[in-house]
Amino acid sequence: MYLQAETVYLFSASNGMKLLFITQVIDKNDTVLGFVHRWLVEFSKHFEHITVICLQMGKYDVPKNVSVFSLGKEAGVSRATYVSNFYRIAFRERKNYDAVLVHMNQEYILLAGVIWKLLGKRVYMWRNHYSGSFLTDIAASFCTKVFCTSRSSYTAKIKKTVVMPVGIDVEVYKSHSEITRLPHSILFLARVAPSKRPHILLEALGELHKRGLNFKANLYGSPAPQDVAYLEGLKKRLLELSLADKAHFLPGLPYTEGPKVYSAHEIFVNLSPSGMYDKTIFEAAACETLVLASSLDFAKLVNPRFTFPQDDIQALSAKLEVLLSLSREARARLGKEIRALAIEKHSLKALGHRIKEELTTW
């Protein structure tokens, strides 16, 4: 006869749990990681106290039960100082946390996994990316659980991995009725990097232009220093495709400006490889902007008209042509449907409850 496994509750609801959360940036206006600030506000409702260690600190406004410590990147300190500051803060604050959640950066677990184990701290890692290595596997070996949002993530293969909601604040990310959507508009919003595939979108826009279709495309995003030349190449290619009057590159946006930009466009295109499952997919959806994405995870949730095979320029241009031809009424109806999907599957509220549940049971 099989014995039913018993769930072990590590902390009761009455005495609470204290968490150490480690991430790259705490800045409510950061163009890439601004969402982490909203995560902390939501997570603070579920934990007695959260101690945050970040590599870089900017503008933030968190609840009283959240303490934020920076490793000093904003002050220009050296990498060696980052490491010494990390060890100093993590050890000094050891009595103020029961468990550790590392967001995306496995390096911190490689640095301190053994120490946390000796201190009796449970370790959890959030890592969602199609790539990984033996170092990822080593970091995961220290973890009680690993979290990701995509079943195509490198970490999805690990037995202790739990697939989680993406975590979109649907109260912030919603359609702004006072903003008129630009007719036949296409939006790209991401860090400008080869992995985000804006070059594929440019080629698809070139195909639409050849067919004489009416559209306007805005590509928002800033490159990391190593990708500045890539952006310059994209701008050159835009001119070669005769898209100067139809497509424009614009700098990355503060996180708080996202809802306004989504609300000003009819179609959002995401080209990231499966395994990344960018939050922008569901930010756009929450703002009732139609989403066209190559993600296999997204394809499992939506009608085929909203997906295309990765890097398939002809398929992408064909799908864009269909969406551009929709009536205003059809677009509005589909926009409300896709927002409902974002709320049901990937809201920040749902993520907050899941994080508390997963960290307090095993």
From TrEMBL:
CDD domains: GT4_PimA-like (cd03801). One of its GO terms (molecular function) is glycosyltransferase activity. InterPro entries: Glyco_trans_1 (IPR001296). Residues 185-339 form the Glycosyl transferase family domain. It comes from the Bacteria. Gene3D superfamilies: Glycogen Phosphorylase B (3.40.50.2000). This is Glycosyl transferase family 1 domain-containing protein. It comes from Candidatus Taylorbacteria bacterium RIFCSPHIGHO2_02_FULL_46_13.
